[in-house]
């Protein structure tokens, strides 16, 4: 029997994928490479303890190609192990036959072990079937239906969701906390000190670095107060332009 | 039926899982284990004597009232209750390994099955059939899995000892390896009759 004779009854759709790049999503027929290997052996009535590796390796490669499994890492891993075994068995043996260890032993062990797992799985399946014939009182709610991936939402859905969340938030009670009253005197003092050094300062100089709203208001009131007293002049080239503050000798007010 | 048997019947009727004798003793401060067992026997007889549609079943280390298998087909056809989906072969194989090797890590499961197990393990955990029971000594302290009472319930078993023993299987079991096996671990193999 040649490798070409092997017919694995794979679903046609999967077989059509053979050789084309892509991902294997469903492997319904075989639950793994060991399962496929066991299938090949059983089909040809091969004794697990004496596997004709060269033949089986070729058949395995052919099968995964037909089934479109040749992109699946687990199957490729097994394929490479088989090819390695095949190569090992082709090498001439040296020395005494006693010390020679069959390189197939590991594979045989795994296959037997896996066969046993399958036997237990079959038992568990039958048990579950039998148990399923008896109903318990007690209602198990069906799991919630998940939205189809990928999650599709448009902007309106999002806005509606945001509205709904915001509507649920209680309006916060805002307390007006006044940190400290306006310090007009302090600001006036600072301006006077500055004007004693320079004849002209900007409003920015007057308020100092990183002014708070209290600083701004204090300075503004102080400026107006000092201007009213005729100690300085405040000028502005045009609306919203920087204010320029000039020292002014006492004299007739404008 | 004694008052205690009636009380136990009511409790079992109300519960959605098997209740143990231990749990049933908490129903009545005057009832000891022996009393509860006697009452359970009474209840079982009661259901079996003039056969009822339900029976008292010993399950997952406790007791539960279940419908008799004879009515399964009609109940299923009527579609009154949703049924849990059947387990896939991959899930059953993974459960088989965990049931026999617990506590067992993902690497060993993958080694035995020859495929990655992440998805199946997650699905089994979601169905509460397995749970993390500890961490292994190996590199990365891998999570170790074991079966849950729900696993026994699902299979209608009372105890893990109800699983077939290795010598009852047609395929011989290799001895439990001390450590996870590598490709060099083939020396211990002895061919088995199959």
User: What is the residue-averaged pLDDT of chain B?
Assistant: 82
- How would you sum up the global shape of chain B? globular
Quaternary status:
heterodimer
Main β-sheet description of chain B: 3 strands, antiparallel
Helix count of chain B, per DSSP?
8
* Overall radius of gyration of chain B: 21 Å
Helix-strand pattern of chain A: HHHHHHHEHHEE
Q: Give the low-pLDDT segments of chain A.
A: 1-26
Rg value of chain A? 44 Å
**Low-confidence residue ranges of chain B:** 172-194
The largest contact between protein chains, plus residue counts on each side, is:
A-B, 44 and 58 residues
Share of helical residues of chain B? 40-55%
Total helices of chain A: the number is: 9
Overall description:
The complex is a heterodimer of chains A (254) and B (194). Chain A has 254 residues and is mainly alpha-helical. Chain A is 49% helix and 5% strand. Chain A is built from nine helices and three strands; from the N terminus they run αααααααβααββ. Chain A has helices spanning 12-15, 33-43, 53-67, 73-90, 105-131, 155-168, 184-197, 203-207, 213-228, and strands spanning 200-202, 232-236, 243-247. A three-stranded antiparallel β-sheet of chain A has the order 1-3-2. Chain A is elongated, with a radius of gyration of 44 Å. Chain A starts with 11 loop residues before the first helix and ends in a 7-residue tail after the last strand. With 194 residues, chain B is α+β, with helices and mostly antiparallel strands. Helices cover 40% and strands 13% of the residues of chain B. Chain B has helices at residues 3-14, 21-25, 33-49, 72-78, 89-101, 106-113, 118-126, 149-155; strands spanning 54-59, 62-67, 104-105, 130-135, 143-147. In chain B, the strands form two sheets. In chain B, strands 3-5-4 form a three-stranded antiparallel β-sheet. Chain B has a two-stranded antiparallel sheet with strand order 1-2. In chain B, helix 1 packs across helix 3 (33-49) and helix 5 crosses helix 7 (118-126). Chain B is globular, with a radius of gyration of 21 Å. Residues 172-194 of chain B have low confidence and may be disordered. Chains A and B meet through helix 4 and helix 5 of A and strand 2, helix 5 and helix 8 of B.
